[in-house]
Amino acid sequence: MHSNHLLLEEPIRMASILEPSKSSFFPAMTKIVGTLGPRSRSVDVISGCLKAGMSVARFDFSWGDPEYHQETLENLRAAVKATKKLCAVMLDTVGAELQVVNNTEKTLQLQEDGKVILTPDHGQEASSEILPINFSGLSKAVKKGDTIFVGQYLFTGSETTSVWLEVGGKVISTWGVKNKIDFLSLSYTRHAEDVREAREFLSKLGDLSQTHIFAKIENVEGLTHFDEILQEADGIILSRGNLGIDLPSEKVFLFQKAAVYKCNMAGKPAVVTRVVDSMTGNLRPTRAEATDVANAVLDGSDGILLGAETLRGLYPIETISIVGKICAEAEKVFNQDLYFKKTVKYVGEPMTHLESIASSAVRAAIKVKASVIICFTSSGRAARLIAKYRPTMPVISVVIPRLKTNQLKWSFSGAFEARQSLLVRGLFPMLADPRHPAESTNATNESVLKVALDHGKASGVIKSHDRVVICQKVGDASVVKIIELED
Q: Domain named Pyruvate kinase barrel: which ranges (predicted)?
């Protein structure tokens, strides 16, 4: 899948454009987050989404109750078992969004240049003149001349359902702990302190101390403090729907490019939202949307997050499949050589021991045209560092479980670390047998390697006579070795 890569700067041959897209076990290196909801919560549909390429399931708590999401999660678990496809769980917190309380559920039509009263009194009936809202402190939060955005754009993706008006933090500790969530999506992150507070909160919740925090950048305040937020967070979600409200539309692409570059250099996943809104109701994306997905990949994004498209869209499985195909096509022309040089230059010298090993593994894999890189890791850090250099071939991250204790009982770690690889571009995790320690004798390493190679063969990414680059610890030393497979 890597031998005939073209660089984007090269003239692209028409023959390669006319070639049909090929499907494989790894639909794309770029990861797809699917939001589960009314149209995508049955075992059958979730199974279809997993087969189509979804690797992270997002549960959006800005709507629906915990019981509803729990039912969906049980269906996800059944689908994972049926398809044998690993899937991580992301809990998306309720952000600073106001909801209009419309008990009549009638369509509301607001008049241009009309006057509207926003009231916390839920006894009032919603109309074109009065909008009851779920926030009593609005009058203190805004001042005369401020703009309030009202509408369903964020939910429906339709501009026609939105208007602008001018003015005249328990779920995590219950649902999150119970279900050992892999990712917490922190809505409306404004400062690094927001991430620190969330991490401190999670650290007191047992297993959730391992949960990765993804900061959602949705407004100018988050954008202003982006560098400090990135330092504290495990990853970034560029929430372009909300950003497009707070930021002039013509500036959003600039923020995307700058933010993704910073995430890439920091080796932290960057996830882009609002890419194929039209697929909420259509079987195909617009040409502009397809180009947008490809450009997100070429910018260096790790993942694409689908919201309304899978939550309530008519074609959740097809949407995931098409987005995966677009990502795979863009990855074929991603200029890895240029990216590698930029990353090495940014890291500077002297490199840390792990960084040097990771970059060497990628360089070796590209030079010998390896079909895959296999990395043995306990924390997942070594595999993430390899992925940071964006190799053109998949990285199978073999997570070796570690025995740990809380003084009351012993347990194995590893499941969190494996699932958290599912939001890093190019990383495909597998959990090793706990009886094989990470730093072990040559015999047990060979045994785990055989399992990894068999997995690669079954997946179709490793064939006879292929070269494979292996990154592992032997005693105190980190080793990169190249093997050539026999028949």
A: 30-151, 174-320
